[in-house]
Amino acid sequence: MQYRPLLSAVGLCALTVWSASAHAQFADKRNTATLYLQAGVAERDARSLTIGSTIPMDWKTFWWGHPVTAHWDLSLSAWNSDRMEREGSRTIAVVGLVPTMRFHSKSQYPWFVEAGLGGYVSSKLYESREKRFSTAFNFGTHIGVGYFTGMRRENEWSVRLEHLSNASIKRPNPGENFVQLRYARHF
């Protein structure tokens, strides 16, 4: 009899811990940090392979009743392009940091649209058969559309169009356009 209040308190604590862990297990993961893998192709003869991470910013608003969030996109890419026939292909490393805004569909729908503008630094000047960048620092702008999958929406698939150039800081400034496919895993 004297243990009944103690057992009730232990049972209540256990129920609270179980409830919190169950909520965390099924919580929506759409605005959490990610690790991602991305592959892209340029207009003619360049390819990119990227690993990266998105880190949520502490910012959120609503447009037309839809949540809008922001995150940092930190990436490390390998760009490979074919050069003149005698020179073969060339691979350069590219590091990027891009603040990105994401417009989410209403909570019951797993779609999103995003846009970003940031900076990239390459290990060497980018060069392909038809293009040669004049700076190792370039700006990148992108738009994308994506879809969440998984019970907690922990998987993210997106297609992005990205333009990179030096914004006419130095000539020539041919720019390069990539179509990219990304898979991200939320944690």
TrEMBL record:
The keyword Cell membrane does not apply. Residues 1-24 form the signal peptide. GO terms for molecular function: hydrolase activity. Keywords: Hydrolase, Signal. The keyword Hydrolase applies. InterPro entries: Lipid-A_deacylase-rel. This is Acyloxyacyl hydrolase.
